[in-house]
Amino acid sequence: MNFWERITGSDMTKEFKTFESRVKKLPAEYQAAWEEINVNLWAHADFTGRNLIPILDGVLGLLEESAADGQRVQEVLGDDIKGFCSALAGEEGAKSVRDKWREQLNTTIAKKLGK
Amino acid sequence: MEDLTELLKGVLEGCVLEIINRNETYGYEITRRLNALGFTDVVEGTVYTILIRLEKNKLVEVTKRPSDMGPPRKFFAINDAGREELQKFWRKWEFVSSKINELKETES
User: Fold this and answer.
1) What pLDDT sits at residue A1?
2) Which of A42, B9, B14, B98 is most buried, taking the most CB atoms under 10 A from its CB?
3) Chain B interface, mutation test: which of A41, A62, A81, most B Cβ atoms within 10 Å?
4) Calpha distance A80→A21 (Å, rounded)
């Protein structure tokens, strides 16, 4: 990633374009699940959302494999997409904006207390 | 059996590692194996998150291989660190299950 990409996020736009074209090849119910996962995962995004790219790439891979196996999307993900997303974000150690604020708050307080 | 999700949470990782220990395998196969064992509620998504954790903790080796149809598949094989972890898991399991049985027997 160069400076220009970092500032404009153009590298991410590129990634999302490729994601989109991959998603279009999936069956309709898989596309719906992808939308759902996307919505839920963004709650775990850092400021730019760059931390989500590898996670989304992995999930898309899982969806592609399962679709090719001819499985129903429900069999693959179960009912708890939200839980699946937070497990994913947790495993990948994605830190959200909230985590950062929390950290900041903690260090500020520690400083004030002179520790 | 249904409704095991909560109870299974802590041990599923060990189960997946044991399955990988027998043979190099991939996510779909692991899920089917667990389903066949009677864990019918386990879905591929759950196994997927466990596999990511195993990979991140460097307990397995991952190779991508082309499949007959669709995208390449990720195959998982256990490594030395994984075998060590698996032994630890079974020791913990022995402890927990023996203690719980002990409790059950003394209660009834």
Assistant:
1) 66
2) B14
3) A62
4) 26
